[in-house]
TrEMBL record:
Protein name listed in UniProt: Ferritin
GO molecular function, one term: ferroxidase activity
Enzyme class of the recorded protein, top EC level: oxidoreductase
Keywords: Chloroplast, Iron, Iron storage, Metal-binding, Oxidoreductase, Plastid, Transit peptide
Reactions performed catalytically: 4 Fe(2+) + O2 + 4 H(+) = 4 Fe(3+) + 2 H2O
Ranges for domain Ferritin-like diiron: 80-208
């Protein structure tokens, strides 16, 4: 039911705080103890009553500029409240994951050599390499879900020899791997600190 208050009844209206979501263009008023919802920029013919239960007009609200579907093919259809800073930080982390994956893959190849032949370590680093690649792919999927663009960057050529005079190759490789894990964790924490992106924070917590 549309509420059409008379000029006299409007005099008694007491403005309450606006509804928290800025997407809902309604204000609340109290009239004789009854809360009334009304569109902020509407004329009196669009005022809505709590007695009808109608507080949301989707076909009116999607006319807002925020909800216009882009027609340019280069622009994501899904992107909403996803800033460039967040997009760039995700691409940076994808590069970190790929770099670490590449190093672990090099370790796998080293320990799989016939003259090194530490098959357990080779298998461990192969799995580690695949795991880091999966991390990169999850970030890619999130980037695409949010309407960002994945931009792969260069990765450094890793070492191919992991022998160490004092430590030997196995200890040296494991220590290097531990350092890389700590570094990757630091980078993830940095990504997590990107402000105003609660869904990204949730994503990192769930997948790291
Ligand atoms: Fe990772």
């Amino acid at each position: 039911m549309i509420l059409k208050p008379s000029s006299s009844s409007l005099c008694n209206l007491e403005t309450l705080s606006p509804i928290s979501s800025s997407l809902l263009h309604y204000s609340r008023y109290r009239r004789n103890g009854v809360v009334v919802f009304a569109k902020k920029d509407s004329n009196s013919s669009h005022r809505l009553s709590s007695t009808t239960g109608v507080v949301f007009e989707p076909f009116e609200e999607v006319k807002n500029d925020h909800f216009i579907i882009p027609s340019v093919p280069q622009v994501s259809l899904a992107r909403q409240k996803f800033v460039d800073e967040c997009e760039a930080a995700i691409n940076e982390q994808i590069n970190v994951e790929y770099n670490v994956s590449y190093v672990y893959h090099a370790m796998y190849a080293y320990f799989d050599r016939d003259n090194v032949a530490l098959k357990g370590l080779a298998s461990f680093f192969k799995e580690s390499s695949e795991e880091e690649r999966q991390h990169a792919e999850k970030l890619m999927a999130y980037q695409n879900t949010r309407g960002g663009k994945v931009k792969l960057q260069s990765i450094l050529m890793p070492l191919s020899e992991f022998d160490h005079l004092q430590k030997g190759d196995a200890l040296y490789a494991m220590e290097l791997a531990l350092s890389l894990e700590k570094l990757t964790n630091e980078k993830l924490l940095k990504l997590h600190s990107v402000k105003h992106h609660p869904s990204l924070h949730c994503f990192i917590c769930l997948h790291s």
